[in-house]
Amino acid sequence: MSKLLDSIIGRSPPTGQDDYMELDLASFEGTMSDQPASMYVKVATIGDLKDTPRVKEEVYNGNIVIIDIGRLKMDKITYERVLKDLKDVARDVNGDIVGLGDQRYVVVTPMSVKIARDKLGGGGL
Description:
By secondary structure, the protein is an alpha+beta fold. It has 4 helices and 4 strands; from the N terminus they run H-H-E-H-E-H-E-E. A 4-stranded mixed β-sheet has the order 1-2-4-3.
């Protein structure tokens, strides 16, 4: 698990499929209430400009989105445009945006949710 966190915050890249542990969360999911939540944490991957509208919609709907933008690193123009779009959304909803690791992941939050720039245990993002 610490290797995954290290990968997200940029300490070391994942080395392979064996680095991840499969979790059996079926028992946890069965205990969750049928009541809808007021906010969700969504996970997305953006590989192209056409992927951004769905992510933006989730933020406008009040959800937190963790986005893997690693595929965009090869196309600097698309990378910069997607980041500009995501920054604009965060600004529009008075939310927040932060890059994690080597800017492979971006977290965008809706109104009234701010992201602390200090990691638990010390250091900055």
